Amino acid sequence: MFTFNTSIIAAIGVWLLVLIGLFLFNEAVRRNDKAGFFAFVVLPIVLTILWFTTLKETTYTDWFHLAKVYSSDAGSIGFWMIGHYTRKDKETGEVTWRLADNKIALCFPPLILAINILEAVIRDFEVGSLGLNLEENGGQILLSGSWNYLNGIAGIFLILTITGWFGIKVRKPSPKDGSKDMLWPDMLWFWIIAYDIWNFAYTYNCLPGHAWYCGVALLIAPTLCSFTVGKGAWLQHRAYTLAIWCMFAQTFPAFQDTSIFAVNSTYNPAIYTFFGVAALVSNVAVFAYMVYKVVKTKRNPYTSELYTDLEEYKKINDMAS
Fold first, then answer.
1. Taking a C-beta distance cutoff of 8 angstroms, is the pair 137, 266 a contact?
2. Structure letter (DSSP) for residue 320
């Protein structure tokens, strides 16, 4: 499935460092609003100047990498603002208005998520249509096949199953965790797992030289957080970790491409097909479950929350302020 430029023990060790680093970064920025502002506003401005000046000969300049960097950072800024932007009465200091209560603002998270998925769907279809046979394209050696179309279709189902657009809430601080996470109670474990399978298949299809890190570590970090200390805020965790990883990869592309820590695909068609089928089956299953719930509850899955009867939904909803 993967070929390593160094020993597998060293590769796993570096992979663990990446995973731990992403997890700890996410913990820092979600618990400290100033750290979040620095990471998603100040740092990208500084790095952008470097990318187009000092580092312009080594960094990625194709549309997809740049779109991924800026869309993930835009999502992070938006999610950070939903959690933290409020207005207070000048005399009493009490909060009189929250961005999290604005219905228009609540359209932003699902919209940026759908756009992010759509970018990858387009790329999967593009790679499939090019008929590449271990040829370079977009800085990667790619193998086109039916798996690109299987995964592209899975991504479309994934977009269709983004439910509860207006059900996003802010986590109320607790003695153990003062963060103001952007909670999405209707985005539950089955959708997250289906997303992870689809996204891994996408990275393996279209970024095979990066899949060891951005297709495994980068997916596990936010999922692990959302199932443990940061329940209900998977999308926020995903955006935060994706943004910092994209900035790192944009600044140090050699880490994944040419260093001894680079990890490549074996380009085995059977593996591509397996994950393409797994992505499509899992996302069709989530879609079928969504349709079942829509028929049973007679709710619109996009304008209202759909999974309110599930225990996991109730636990996350109870955490909201």
1. no
2. B
Q: What is the pLDDT of residues 78-111, one digit of tens each?
A: 999 999 888 887 777 787 788 988 989 999 999 9
- Cα distance from N-terminal residue to C-terminal residue, the chain: 45
Give the whole-angstrom CA distance, residue 73 versus residue 67.
Answer: 10
DSSP, residue by residue, 169-206: EEBPP-SS-----EE-TTS-HHHHHHHHHHHHHHHHHH
Cα–Cα dist 211/203, whole Å:
5
What's the rounded Cα separation, in Å, for the pair 28 and 32? Answer: 6
- Among the residue ranges 85-89, 127-131, 225-229, 312-316, the one predicted with the least confidence is 85-89
Backbone angles phi, psi at 282, to 5 degrees: -65, -40
Is-contact 271 287, C-beta < 8 A? no
**Are 112 and 242 within 8 A, CB to CB?**
no
Please state, for a pLDDT cut of 70, what percent of the chain lies above it: 100
| Closest alpha carbon to 18 in 157, 197, 181, 217 | 217
Other beta carbons within 10 angstroms of residue 87's beta carbon come to: 10
**pLDDT confidence bin for 274, thresholds 50/70/90:** very high
- CA 74, CA 318: separation in Å to the nearest integer? 28
Dihedral of CA 148/153/158/159: which sign?
positive
Q: Please, are residues 88 and 165 in contact by the beta-carbon 8 Å criterion?
A: no
Distances (CA, A) of 213 to 1, 22, 154, 209, 293: 14, 11, 22, 9, 36
Count CB-CB contacts under 10 A for residue 192. Answer: 19
Q: Apex CA 255: angle with CA 75 and CA 230, to 5°?
A: 40
Q: How far apart are CA 23 and CA 13, in angstroms?
A: 15
